[in-house]
Amino acid sequence: MQGIWTTEHLRAAEARLLAATPEGALMQRAAFGVAVQAADLLAEHTGHVVGRRVALLVGAGNNGGDALWAGSFLRRRGVAVTAVLLNPERTHAAGLAALRRSGGRVITPARASQLLESVDLVIDGIIGLSARGALRGDAAALVGHIGAPVLAVDLPSGVDPDTGAVTGPAITATRTVTFGARKPVHVLNPERCGEVVLIDIGLAPELGEPDLRRLDGVDIAAAWPVPGPHDNKYTQGVTGVAAGSATYPGAAVLATGAAVLATSGMVRYAGPAADVVRARWPEVIATGSVTDAGRVQAWVVGPGIGTGQEGRGVLRQVLEAGVPVCADADATTLMARFPEVLDAREPGTPLVLTPHAGEFARLTGHELGHDRVAAVREAARKYDAVVLLKGNTTLVAAPDGRVLVNVAQGSWLATAGSGDVLSGLIGALLAGGVDPWLAAGAAAGVHSLAADLAARGVPVSASGVLAAIPDALRHLRHPGFPRP
Ligand SMILES: NC(=O)C1=CN([C@@H]2O[C@H](COP(=O)(O)OP(=O)(O)OC[C@H]3O[C@@H](n4cnc5c(N)ncnc54)[C@H](OP(=O)(O)O)[C@@H]3O)[C@@H](O)[C@H]2O)[C@@H](O)CC1
Ligand SMILES: Nc1ncnc2c1ncn2[C@@H]1O[C@H](COP(=O)(O)OP(=O)(O)O)[C@@H](O)[C@H]1O
Ligand SMILES: [K+]
User: Fold this and answer.
1) Which of 343, 282, 334, 321 is CA-nearest to residue 427?
2) Which of 77, 109, 164, 415 is deepest in the core (most CB within 10 A)?
3) Which atom from ligand 1 is nearest to the alpha carbon of 65?
4) What span, in angstroms and rounded, lies between the C-alpha atoms of 101 and 119?
């Protein structure tokens, strides 16, 4: 599992490390990492390092210091380096001296626009951990002149370190080099960061509990239930799916199918699309209503059930069942319309809510602001539920404040019906007894991996994502096969 720390917690950890390290040592470790990545990007984009031209955008603090030291290291590799000092009076003195000693040039922002249009690489050392708001002044004006790949130092300047929010001019990086620990911006706004490279500066022993977590493939593989020699179809947990309608049977087919493919064991379907589900998934025990469904160890409820009285009745029945529930799509809207339906839930019974941004706003009564993490944490606490907030970066909050992050590699999941597939995956894991927070996070990981495997660079339907679930699981259980 990867940890991610907010600036507040990093500051404290860095202060402890700084106190125990010779002056300047941390910055040199960081800057050396920047220089290595800069040389790598130059080679990748131009085929050479020696003789290539690099511009440093240098702000008022240590982020600029990192860039200046990196520039001095790049000089030793034969790179032509020019620093643009955005705040000359507050430029990092030792870094500037190092760059000058190495033969680097220094210019003012007024002369920088042409330089930025003609260099081979720009190193963004404008602001790092102390960033507040979008870029201002000269930095804001220069961003539009950048024509080369950008290597961001610690984070792309102008993007909020803790929320990833962009409220005005900001850097879009090709690659970001960060130090000691990943920061929220790296997972909350991957689009602005590009590829993120983490440099070890010795911070690990100083870091406490992470603020956000990201599951690795091995974590997902370890959490995913697989049958043992003494298992049978019942012992692994039976998943119930209450989804779809006669007019819209697709949601039922997709959610049920995902549950069928996610785990071994058994899946029951309850609802008006029983015939269609049976025809598509003959292994499913399909009935017309939740009352007739028989026993299950978890329910998936919501996709396609409608937002009227009928849907409300189904949701109530499922919540009354006393087993873990994944409530998706229409179930979320029903909870917003008829909040009293939640009274049917036995306190303490696991509940996973899976809203997209619109459903989240409907459920909580307010739009998602810039701080998605704070919003999803608050909702998880309020509903005493695991809340999975969908998007390119999916957040999964537990009522105790823990947050998992899943960053999709591509955006192929932005297709109708893909959410139904996710709810089926979560339901199957809940039925298998997986902790609800981990279940939602692991399901999100398999879901996005299945999309990448199915798409391979071209659009894919929700049915395609569904069909790739076995490949995704195979990939996680036997890394390297098949390749995404
Ligand atoms: N500590 C460590 O262990 C290590 C730290 N390291 C490095 O230090 C970095 C943190 O450095 P830092 O704290 O000196 O501040 P930094 O982020 O450079 O900001 C500089 C100034 O920018 C300004 N500013 C703010 N917002 C702005 C805006 N929107 N637009 C324009 N300007 C804005 C603001 O000044 P103000 O506006 O308050 O006058 C602020 O003081 C960290 O990210 C990493 O790279 C590494 O060397 C490894 C070891
Ligand atoms: N741009 C995107 N990049 C990656 N994943 C996305 C993107 N947009 C949506 N998704 C994912 O696709 C799924 C869509 O679910 P949902 O909005 O419920 O769609 P539907 O109701 O059509 O099934 C979610 O898992 C969400 O995280
Ligand atoms: K930066």
Assistant:
1) 321
2) 164
3) 47
4) 21
User: What tokens were used for 91?
Assistant: 């430029």
Contact status, residue 54 vs residue 79, Cβ threshold 8 Å: yes
Contact 304, 245 (CB under 8 A): yes
Phi, psi of 231 (to 5 degrees): -80, 155
Write down all domains in the chain, each with its CATH number in brackets.
Answer: 2-209 (3.40.50.10260), 217-477 (3.40.1190.20)
pTM above threshold 0.80: yes
Q: pLDDT by residue (tens digit) across 133-152? A: 999 999 999 999 999 999 99
Q: Which residues line ligand 2 (CB under 6 A)?
A: 329, 356, 390-392, 394, 408, 411, 413-414, 416-420, 422, 447
Cα→Cα distances 346→51, 316, 332, 350, 423, Å: 69, 11, 18, 9, 21
Q: How far apart are CA 66 and CA 28, in angstroms?
A: 7
pLDDT, tens only, 316-334: 999 999 999 999 999 999 9
Residue 480 assigned to a binding site: no
417-432: burial string, b at 16+ Cβ within 10 Å, e else: bbbbbbbbbbbbbbbb
Closest residue by CA, ligand 1 atom 5: 62
- The ipTM of this complex is 0.95
What are the residues whose beta carbon lies below 5 Å from ligand 3 (ion)? 63, 124, 152-153, 157
Cα–Cα dist 77/73, whole Å: 7
Q: For residue 131, count other CB atoms closer than 10 A to its CB.
A: 24
Question: Measured from the CB, is residue 464 less than 6 Å from ligand 1?
Answer: no
